[in-house]
Amino acid sequence: MEVPPEMLDALAGWFAQSLSPDAAARRAAEQSISSAAASPGFALALLGLAASPRHDLQARLAAAVHFKNLLRRRWPKPDADADDAADLLPASDCAIIKTHLLQLLLTAPPLIQAQLSEALAAAAACDFPARWESLLPSIVSSLGTAVNAGDVAATNSLLAAAASLFNRFRNAFDNNALRLDLKYCLEIFAAPLLEVFLFASRRLQAAATTANPLELRPVFECLRLCCEIFYSLNSIDLPEFFEDNMHQWMSEFRAFLTTSYPPPVEADGAPDALRAAVCDNLQLYMEKYEEEFRAYLKEFVEAVWGLLMAQTASPSRAQLAVTAIRFLTTVAESVHHALFGSPEAMKQICDSVVVPNLRLRDEDEELFEGNWVEYVRRDSEGSDADTLRRAACRLLRGLAANYREQVAALVSAQVQQMLAAYAADRANNWKEKDAAIYLVIALMQKPGATGGGTPVVDMESFFTSVIVPELQAPDWQSEPMLKATVLRFLKEFRDQIPKATALALLPSVVRFLTHESNVVHSYAATFIENLLIIKDAVPVPAVNTVTRSPRYVAADINPFAPQIIQNLSTALSFPDSYENPYLMKSLMRVLGIANITGQIVHEITARLVGILMEVCNNPKNPDFNHYLFEALAAVIGRTGEQDPALLPAFEASLFPVLQRILVEDISEFWPYAFQIFAQLVNLSRPPLSQNYMQLFGVLLSNATWDRPPCVPALVRLLRAFLRKIPNELNQEGRLPNILAISRSLLSRSSTEDSAFYMLNTLVENVGLDIMNPYISEIWSALFTRLQSRQAVKFVNSLVVFMSLVLVKYGSGVLVSSIDAIQPSLFSQILQRFWIPNLKLIKGALEVKLTAVASTKLLCESAVLLDAAAAQLWGKLLDSIVTLLSKTNQDLAQEQNDGADAVDIQKTSGYSVSFVRLQYAGKSEDDLLKEVNDPKQFLVTSLATLSAQSPGRFGPVIEQHVDPANKSALLQLCAAYNANIV
């Protein structure tokens, strides 16, 4: 694989510059890399740089990461859409990569090796095994060579590659194809894996007394990787090979759990990392293959219990304890729970496992003070890295499933004991109170939880005597870890706190927003944000269902809003909280609910714009930035609509930073900027200022639409302009330009939604006099695409668009303009696509639009009223009735889903992507406001039509409408007092 040296040097320079603190240099380098990515052989150049020993390690690592991500995005998938083929890696590049990747991985440094291993897994996820048959035999052959040579380092590299390869079996959906792939892997790899495992185990036994951690660490790593692969290959089902050789595996597993190594080796952590992997495998077998594993269960419970009792200085002991406790929890929840059922065993669990692991450790305090983001992630978000506290409480909950009263008594006594210790010496025993609150959080029933909680304390009394005093304490800056746990308690049980109580406590919580601890003010912000999204079930008698209504509305939050906003703004200036997503999310939520006026509007707008100017220098926190734009959208939306006079101030504040985003090509923010621009345009009154008209010109540039992530936001902006200046389209060739852009979007399945949204916007806002010269061009583009794209999603969008044309311009224009393309084309479209897909339309407005349009076709179109079209008429009516027979519960569910969607989705990384700003959204217009009920519109229209030709339509209905739909139609006629004669 030859890559020109000058290309490698150029890439290395760009990657080095991409890590520069200088924003301009960094952006220039990123632009160079982005431009090079479009050229053939770019992936090979990345791989070549990652493997090049003569270049800087940081540049090589950056190239390896880029290579991994490139393969994830652009490696050809077997089921890839033909529209996306242009974005995929060429087959020739893929073939070269597959030939060289494994060998380059083996010779790379560890950091780069890890990235290349993930890259291999990304390619293998698409091609292995069917289109990469040589991969696994190559790994097995190389493993044999490495083991024979006693080369543990090479063995580990190969095992790491295999582990990446087999990881897919852990979480993939079980199906026949997956099982065939697993069978193939087992036939080739199961026996060699056991050989390598036993080889490494013998190597470890031979050197068991060696006190040199560096010598033994690779052997422990080899065994850990074997255990990781064991887990993957056993995840779907118990393979015959592993069942036949279970005794060999289990004997070695038990030896690893019960053997002690010299203190320097134990302190290194490698033995505990291996033991943790063993415990993961034990839990897998306990959960999935309990019958086959039963013979080994008691001895492993004793071995794991013994590990938890042993004291060690190992840095991996915490993770081992988590996995060990998890295994014991699985046993406690199983039919073998009697192993822990005696009072002595339970007390020992509580005293020796739960309580020691529940109390805050020195490491927790260090994390709290030194890495607050990770502390919050572990403590309250349920991160992948489970904590000892959560694991210990889960074990208690597991026991409570079968021994509820005994566990409740033990824990209740423990909580009282901890609270008594705190009362005796508050200054030194605050950790006891912290642990007591944590126990209550873990074991009490929470709203929406299933299975019931364990009644440890009287919740009302506990809340009044333990929680409220901490919230109202004068020394609110003291014991920050305890204050954080108290605020977490509030968050966990927020639904159960009466509204009046929560509002009374709010001032106490608000002051914690300016607490010097990042965790404390983050937890206070999270509680306030979570409080404001609580919804209560409200019965809707008319449709015999329930909807969900916000518990807290503007009137509730308005008295507190100025102080909350001020405190959040202050906290955002604290060290390490400049880009705190919890603070910004809380601010966003308050601004989206409260009514703010006067000077506070200008102050918070200026503050948010200032923050945005700062993050433009280095957009590194996607969640924070998303909530920042949401907060801006909330201020603009709520205050701008109430007071249009604020618009000039918003424009003066926002235009400089939004223009900076476009001019400096801060691509991560483009989708957000266009949505904010759309919001400002929506609030403006024609004639629009020169600034907006310049933006309109940028919008109509083809280059602006070349970035797919920006397209939905651009369509929103175009929609806003068309609402304000529809008549400007027939100037300067603007409409043909828009239609050309829509054709380009229509050609790709990933952007066809936006194409239809654009066309819908045109029809909604632009009169027939302007659109008429171009309507044939639109139909030609749509029907050409229809020939190759007949997916339900596309056809449904087409039916909605045709319905819109009919409602806006009339059925005659719809039929004649389509038939102008080809005689009788409309009847073919109606029969093949409109009628079959009408019943599949979703969305309240879409259902109403298509039902009314179809009814107009039935009752107004000469094509359908022709006697020769009786069958077509009957089939269309049948589809309309099917569409309108959707239950009220379905519609209520849709409304609930829409209402809940205001909660903001978490972004998933920092690739440029479109993320909808909920607060910048504008509800879709109902073009048929005059039609209150499409069902009534149908039957009254039919009644009027049939009255003009008595006796004509009854036989058609009898012959061509499904019996169930005939019955439904009769019920509708009775309900609305209409008759079809």
TrEMBL record:
InterPro entries: ARM-like (IPR011989), ARM-type_fold (IPR016024), Importin-beta_N (IPR001494), XPO2_C (IPR005043), XPO2_central (IPR013713). GO terms for biological process: protein transport. PROSITE patterns: IMPORTIN_B_NT (PS50166). The keyword Hydrolase does not apply. Gene3D superfamilies: Leucine-rich Repeat Variant (1.25.10.10). One of its GO terms (cellular component) is nucleus. The keyword RNA-binding does not apply. It is found in: Cytoplasm; Nucleus. It holds the Pfam family IBN_N. Belongs to the XPO2/CSE1 family. SUPFAM superfamilies: ARM repeat (SSF48371). This is Importin N-terminal domain-containing protein.
